[in-house]
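ok here's the first one, seq then struct tokens
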Amino acid sequence: MEINGIAHIVLTVSDFAAARRFYGALLPALGLVPLIDADGYYYCIGGRTGVAIRPSEDPDAGRFSQERPGLHHFCFRARDRAHVDAIHALAVELGAKVHRAPEEGPFAPGYYSTLFEDPDGMRIEMNHIPGKGHLEAK
């Protein structure tokens, strides 16, 4: 068996309005199309991927932390390096906390990425790996 990608990711956010503004700009910039845009739920699809946000039922739970069990970060795969640069520029425009401007990394041959946070502090990476990356030799 071989999976065909990740069907969807649903993110629980502390401030739905702030997250809706952020993801309402980010996801369409990635080519994802809004399928549901309702009070308390925003869901976009495209590129064999779905991303949704929903409000937390516990608004006092605090900000996201990579140090607690659960999600560390998630990464979108870009078709070329220019898309990584464009998403970095959008993250800056949106006022996101940027941890890493676009740069090459050691993770795979030609790895190029940027890393930033959403309004809750969830880290989002955008990378590009030319060809098949680690699978090139297979």
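and now the second one, same deal
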Amino acid sequence: MAHTRIRAFNTKDTYPEQNLDNDLAQAVVARGQVIFLRGQCPQDLDTAKNIDSHDPVEQTHKVMQNIRQLVEEAGGEMAHVTKLVVYLTDVRHREAVYRTMGEYIRGVHPVCTGLVVVALARPEWLVEIDATAVIPD
């Protein structure tokens, strides 16, 4: 792992009643160049056009692809992600969103906070995720 992860865990152990399998941690200790990402939504980074889907899984794939692309453009990799904040407009999408997000953070163990909000900037968006990454010294 790129950084020290304190109390790494998997959500299948923490939330056995939910169908989740995410590698997370209670804390991350990192040194290096910090990358702060704007909250990523299900839209193309080059055109700012929304993807043509109202499915939370498809939207989450696009959000996480955007995060990966931006981290890589900054010179990092997904292993450098230290924190994610997930904003959902419907708590019923939580498992689908977290399962999909988990595909991109397997073995990374970032800290993560999830919130349910009334709305995002556009009514068709179901999920927004902001990320922080640290490229090690």
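notes on #2: Residues 15 and 21 are 9 Å apart (CA to CA). Residues 56-73 form the longest helix (18 residues).
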